[in-house]
Amino acid sequence: MRILSVALLAALSSSVYAVEGMWQPHQLKALAEDIEAKGLALDPQKIGDLQSHPLNAVVGLGFCTASFVSPTGLVVTNHHCAYGTIQYNSKPERNLLRDGFLAKTFGEELPGEPNARVYVTESITDVSSKLRKGLPDGAKNGLARFRAIDERQKALVKDCEKAGGYRCDVYVFHGGASYFLVKLMEIRDVRLVYNPTEAVGKFGGDTDNWIWPRHTGDFSFLRAYVGPDGKPADYSTSNVPYRPKSFLKISQTGVSDGDFVMIAGYPGRTNRYRLSDEVNDAISFTYPTQIARVREILDVIASNSKDRPDAAIKYAATVASLNNGLKNFEGNRDGFAKFDAVALKQNEEQKILAWAEKNKPAGVTAYRDLKALITEVRATRERDQILGYLNQSGITTTARTLYRINIEREKPDAKREYGFQTRDEARIEGGLRQLDKRWDPKVDRALMEYVLNRYLMLPETQRVPELDRWLGVNGSENQLKSKLDSLFAQSKLGDLDTRLQLFRAGRKAIESASDPALQMAVALMPATLRIEQENKTRAGRETMLRPVWMDTRIAYASSIGKQVYPDANNSLRVTYGNVMGYAPKDGLQMLPFTYLEGIVEKHTGSGEFDATKAQLDVISAKRFGPYSSRTPTGTQSVPVNFLSDLDITGGNSGSPTLNSKGELVGLAFDGNYEAISSGWVFNPKLTRTIHVDSRYMLWLMDEVDQADNLLKEMVLEQ
Amino acid sequence: MRILSVALLAALSSSVYAVEGMWQPHQLKALAEDIEAKGLALDPQKIGDLQSHPLNAVVGLGFCTASFVSPTGLVVTNHHCAYGTIQYNSKPERNLLRDGFLAKTFGEELPGEPNARVYVTESITDVSSKLRKGLPDGAKNGLARFRAIDERQKALVKDCEKAGGYRCDVYVFHGGASYFLVKLMEIRDVRLVYNPTEAVGKFGGDTDNWIWPRHTGDFSFLRAYVGPDGKPADYSTSNVPYRPKSFLKISQTGVSDGDFVMIAGYPGRTNRYRLSDEVNDAISFTYPTQIARVREILDVIASNSKDRPDAAIKYAATVASLNNGLKNFEGNRDGFAKFDAVALKQNEEQKILAWAEKNKPAGVTAYRDLKALITEVRATRERDQILGYLNQSGITTTARTLYRINIEREKPDAKREYGFQTRDEARIEGGLRQLDKRWDPKVDRALMEYVLNRYLMLPETQRVPELDRWLGVNGSENQLKSKLDSLFAQSKLGDLDTRLQLFRAGRKAIESASDPALQMAVALMPATLRIEQENKTRAGRETMLRPVWMDTRIAYASSIGKQVYPDANNSLRVTYGNVMGYAPKDGLQMLPFTYLEGIVEKHTGSGEFDATKAQLDVISAKRFGPYSSRTPTGTQSVPVNFLSDLDITGGNSGSPTLNSKGELVGLAFDGNYEAISSGWVFNPKLTRTIHVDSRYMLWLMDEVDQADNLLKEMVLEQ
């Protein structure tokens, strides 16, 4: 069976199926012929130019993608990307999440949540030579190599951010084969302009998350504001709408099955070039154990917040996030069950190795050494997983953060640990302030007890001496209980003022504190730093090996006339392809479009499928405006969501979907369930991107929500 | 929402969607134009002729349909229709169910199970005038009217069966608007010729039951044998293969999406012309309560056969049957949840009544009186449901049957209760013999206790005095327990010889017996007979009303140029239409064909999805023979199952599916889940028949099972 499936998949990848590839903009020139063949009507040589339309209309939100859609800084993104800002402005007496919101004038627009940002890409500079040349030998001293790279990155970032108003970061490609310095203008005054009701924007809720057929109106509008001088500024009534270099026109006629579409956006992370051994570890260890642990953690939270609505509310976001992660882990598990990903990867590696033997022998050595490194990591993977969960506990993490920031603050900024530099302090302080909202001592204690009990099950070889000592020699469950009793009885970290005072108290004060949570953090810090250093040493070695192996892969691909795109790393990418349904199994066809009538079908009148009467009435009256098209049964209706074979991942949410003329025909907001495991192995037959259709957006704004001012502000294309 | 759905459904029923209709063969002439429009290439005027090809090749098996496919009596039907005979011939050392069976010569063919029959339709005679004229007035004396009809039917049957070798029955159409006497030649020597492995014939098991996409090879071959004189005879080695008047040719090229198909067969029962009140009762009472009761009964069986494999095996068939029923009840519930069937029916009735006011006022009165009758039935529906379950208990039913047959045997045959006549005695005796195989005292006792406890919950008004007396006045649970203790401790009905002796013991012997199960039967018989008589009285009244209402419906339909087919009643019907997929919901399309690769996709290597290595190897090697066609992805493969919009129900299983030239292109074996509630209201958008494709049958026989002898015996058409 397994062999057969691999053969099938291999056959498919050479056929007409979906186009894998999250391309760096500069790579697009080399793909011009293919892009034109897929249907682009613009000049494929220019499409990758950051300074030109349409790419210069695409912006980041930090965790999502968005785009300018008017000359006065109007931004469109997903409803779930604007969620924080909508929630921030919602009150019991004015519930914008539930009821939707429309500012009829600029003056009615509402301030974004404190961390709301719009990032406009200013430049992307190849700094590979600055990062790769003259480094210490990682095989001999991995740590020195790691530190050298780290210092060079920090120096580049510091220099780049000097001017103010910019956020810079060095992005690592192919595990270190190349580095790019990205300079982003950081717009800090971002306001809420329009969001549909939650019944539209989150229609289907968690049930429909990752699911096709889909009927979610996952879109909202924000506006970027800058100071009167045109530069980023904090929120102020004297700020003015930002005037972007360009903006996208909205298509009123949308796309049809088979049409060309492309997406520019900021995909977060993929693992497409991981070795077969790493894929094997993910399948045989990571996902199964994570699924088991997360389920147990959810049980612990549920049983300890039962009949305690206050605690339940505090952990609601954590539970939602754990459930989201669980669905992802399960999606990976289910995806991997459909074919032999390890054999597929091994097959691929054998081809590359056979070629490298003759043409690039260094690649063969790097491959072998990488495998050895992977084997090393396995030795403590159970420990590392458990410690990871311990670090998610409220009080432990708070104590460790407080200690660490005070340690790091003693160093010059450039030497401080990544995440604990001056530029990070505001974010850390924000976290300390918000602990109260998502922390309950009873739940936290139960979680710590669960995690530490799992820790005690580890074999001797994986135990951490410092933690063993803290727990008491040969720590039994009973000692653990009394340890936690006193920790939770005596710690004052639940108090906001105490936390804020400790934030700037200095290293000495923490080390001499009597708070048992802080004492635990102090006791464990040597272990944390030791493990961190081991990881850095290994990472330093990896920066010797992974780039060589990736250079080999790229050279091999080049020898057979193929381009290699890098794994996603939050940097700007372009993916292109076509509107396309798929066959999840024999006899079943997922059609590429859904329509308004599907909302009526799913509507139950409560919970996640509770369309508004206003919307149902307009559907029932068939008031489709100029936004309808012909459905498969020959009737007319407005398309709601559509599928394409584009290659996206988390971070791409909100990305504008462009047609062959570069007009906005929708927004990417999800993948199908089968796409989850495509983070590791792209299955062209089953991987699909889900878009909200521009016609649905326009129809809703026009016929249901009367957002005439926005329709007038934007440029609509027939 | 509900209103909207009704409007939608109404719109659909006048569109191009599926063709509702289980037509009596004689009705087809009037439909000739429509049949030709759908694509029939034969003469539509002749297609309904019982004595001609293809209808005279279609036969009944009693509970399924089948057809002759060779000049020497070869019969093809579903695997699940031949199941009893395959099981009958299976032994641990030669498991034909698991391993399949192929007789390479006539001599190797195996005897059918004792009740295996092939019924060849000899004639269908309209006897309506004999049944409807000069009957007592049902409004005054329902019982007299019922008895008069009953006696006339029995007389017709007796006269018809006089010759011997025939089975005759009077079939009631439209609740008594017309009656037809059907004369069937009853072939009693039916042998097993070929069945695929269970991994093919039952692929997907209960999981895939009622499910599309489907990949089940639900077909098997039998052969009809007669005495050397050509007349039906008991099994004998001197019997010879029956030579049918005609037989079907098998298509090797099959059908494509949209092609004409038709089916002739014996659908069991539908409720398409029930009044809106009856539909309402089914939705609000029957299905919900049946679902609850059946689940409870399944729990009782499970908990009382736990860790008792012997008991579990004895109740395996009962559990399978209950689960099958449960899926049906749930399918009805789920189907009815999708639209407002009651409003749809009311709407239909209002139109007919409005027309009848002017044209056929008797219909208005009949409708009103029928509604009153339905209200009467409601008064005891909880009681009737409970008594129904009591009648399914092993020992109670056995005792009641033994008493009843001895009572009935005292009457002249024509006066005996239907089901207890001379012609029924062999079947009753067979049941008594087989009790051991499906009866366990502990489980039976628990079931009786469950049912009687439910009985005790009935309101006073629905209690049965005789049963109350038997249980002890104000029967409490404790009295019930001791009553059952002594019944199960003392009854000897678990003993086969005792049962057989009592079968012919005579009424007096039963009435004076000391066996507590018999004493219970004797004590309750007056109640049974009284309720039976009440039901007959009501049935007699109904035969006054239902035909008038149906005559009105037919006249109304005729006034708008439409034919009316009768509800299914186990008599021969023809349904025609086209190969067609469906859209179960917006964005999802069920394709009309499945292919071999779908078997590989579903194969898990165990349980219900455990394809044989032999089959997988042939698929993997793409040895498709001349049976492949182009799949939706452009590859070649062998179609396994397909969908059509034909109108079938239980009893149609095994029906030959014919193409436009009358060649066999498949066998009907199931409906989709959405089709279950079509027993009440035909939803043309969602109701589909599932067929096994003739190409899959031929491919399997040719490439996997080497059934060359059968391929040679049959006539294959290109």
Which keywords apply here?
homodimer, alpha+beta, 11-stranded antiparallel beta sheet, 7-stranded antiparallel beta sheet, disordered N terminus
Structure description:
The structure is a homodimer of 718-residue chains. By secondary structure, chain A is an alpha+beta fold. Chain A has 26 helices and 24 strands. In chain A, the strands form five sheets. In chain A, strands 1, 2, 3, 4, 5, 6, 7, 8, 9, 10 and 11 form an eleven-stranded antiparallel beta sheet that branches. Chain A has a seven-stranded antiparallel beta sheet with strand order 14-13-21-22-23-20-17. A two-stranded parallel ribbon of chain A has the order 12-24. In chain A, strand 1 and strand 2 (65-68) form a beta hairpin. The longest helix of chain A has 44 residues, at 516-559. Chains A and B meet through strand 16, strand 17 and helix 23 of A and strand 16, strand 17 and helix 23 of B.
